[in-house]
């Protein structure tokens, strides 16, 4: 008997409650051959993904983070059917990704920050039309969908521009539109904001938040940018050397690793170190013209620290240093599991 989920994924999940992604003891290793002498070659096995189990429900927004080489891209490739697992299982939208890659592509959109899915020499709008045709969208529906994405992502004046002439921020908005033309249930983003300026990052995030709400789309993203996670993800999975090191919310993760924020203030005049209750003074520069304060975001806000500084000295300028993902991950890795 055939598995109904393979014959028709719609029948397998009539009420839309089945997990969108499910992996059980998922593993993928690579054999790497290295020259160890003039003639001899040695073999080494890299366990890129080393037994990960997780379920992601429809509509969830999940950040998949970890240090360089932790196994993020390898997992994403298995989820999207680019790589076959060495062992264990993965189901995406109720399908087995590699053998059902074509059917899966109708339900999944993928954006790789480092790789383009657009036709480089063609005007941007041609890529949208080609993708709509590949996905078999009826002409009227395709035109309507493309127009909506173009409006929301502010791509109107770029439609006739060849992709190779677009700025990185413009191209990334184009990539996201291209990944969404066929209204996927799952959007997978691999470093979507890498290299973008602050404003472009924020525009992209705002669009993704709105689109997710509109379409109840599931989001899975890898990123090295903490603000992507803060703004976009309700849940964080941290992978460490191919294994899952954390599964939970970002605030809980921040508490677990005792994450602190740092406020840097520039004063009008030099000042001895300022003392603020409940806040740690972590350094002065330029005779106290610049002072740094560390605080726990769950007990104190940056505005409270600033107000307390303002009572004692006049402030010229300020910056808030965001903890970066590398710090969080490194702290988590050092903790006993
Ligand atoms: N095709 C391959 N052949 C050999 N080794 C590989 C291959 N792909 C990945 N690896 C190795 O597997 C490990 C995990 O790589 P992966 O690309 O999944 O990490 P990542 O978490 O995505 O890293 P980054 O943040 O740098 O993109 C690394 O040690 C990498 O060198």
TrEMBL record:
Annotated InterPro entries: AAA+_ATPase (IPR003593), ABC_transporter-like_ATP-bd (IPR003439), ABC_transporter_ATP-binding (IPR050763), P-loop_NTPase (IPR027417)
Domain of life, source organism: Bacteria
Localization per Swiss-Prot or TrEMBL: Cell membrane
Record keywords: Antibiotic resistance, ATP-binding, Nucleotide-binding, Transport
Membrane topology: Peripheral membrane protein
Stored SMART domains: AAA
Any one GO molecular function term: ATP binding
Domain ABC transporter as annotated: residue spans: 21-266
Pfam families reported in the protein's UniProt record: ABC_tran
UniProt cross-references to PANTHER family, sorted A to Z: ABC TRANSPORTER ATP-BINDING PROTEIN, ABC-TRANSPORT PROTEIN, ATP-BINDING COMPONENT
The protein's name in its UniProt record: ATP-binding cassette domain-containing protein
Organism: Microlunatus ginsengisoli
